[in-house]
Amino acid sequence: MTLELVRVDDRLIHGQVIVGWGHLLRPETILLVDDEIAANEWEMDLYRMGVPDAMEISFLTVEDAAARMESFANSAERVIVVLGSVDSLARLCDKTSAVRKVNLGGVHFSSERIERLPYVFLSDEEMYRLGTLEQAGIEIVAQDVPTSSAVPFAGLK
Amino acid sequence: MSSRLKGLVVAHDSIGEGLVRAVEKISGVRGVLTAVSNEGCDREKLTELVSDAVEETPTVIFVDLFGGSCCHAAMRAEADGENVAVVTGVNLAMLLHFVHHLDQSAGEAALAAVEIGNRSIKTVTR
Q1: What's the CA gap between A121 and B35, in Å, rounded?
Q2: Which pLDDT tens digit goes with each residue over B35-57?
Q3: Whole-prediction pTM value?
Q4: A14 closest CB neighbour out of B40, B68, B75
Q5: CB contact under 8 A, A15 and B69
Q6: Chain A contacts of B39, Cβ < 8 Å?
């Protein structure tokens, strides 16, 4: 299993991912899974820019990621997967069982969301969808950076 | 030059606010720099805050970390605006120079900021 981190973070690839988790996990590949970004060359360039030379970055739609997730999970490569939303995560997990553990790294405020942690705001629908994933055996843990305490999904109510 | 430049410092936590306050204290120049923090913002919200702060005015956007969320938001605002330039690795030296050199294009001011900023970084250990 070399999906080192499967992270939901609406800032996608940024300091916490590259510096915080990247330093600890030393990923060889980062997969940015987002339908909109994967269709926008300009946005892809933006995210390529901040990735160190030692890391590969790939941009995939949820559909393409689902098709390849098993092979990433079974490869010798250390991979970090970043998704921009609970919706992308739920759609990914509907199509593949390769994801066994999920990190909620940053879901910020919007009008329909409630604060669960200072860096995790979730709507009731998002809570429900995450709950469904957890019932299916996927471990869900909130943790923004490796040095902060990990909060299990049950602690987010 | 139709209107004078202004500067926007887009950075993590309270870095921007601290830098703007320090520049005002040191230089006495007020009203040129504005701070935007990425705290609590997803990418759309931060891009909106930066774009709203740029308005139609020629602006240099200073960000702290190359390739980070502030940098991404600044580059989106730059792509949407005219006479907007982005400089990464903001430091006090470049801002102090900037607030006294506002009668130029954003691109010229950005190049000068990079030069001044770089020049101020050195080891003084003997």
Answers
A1: 25
A2: 999 999 999 999 999 999 998 89
A3: 0.90
A4: B68
A5: yes
A6: none
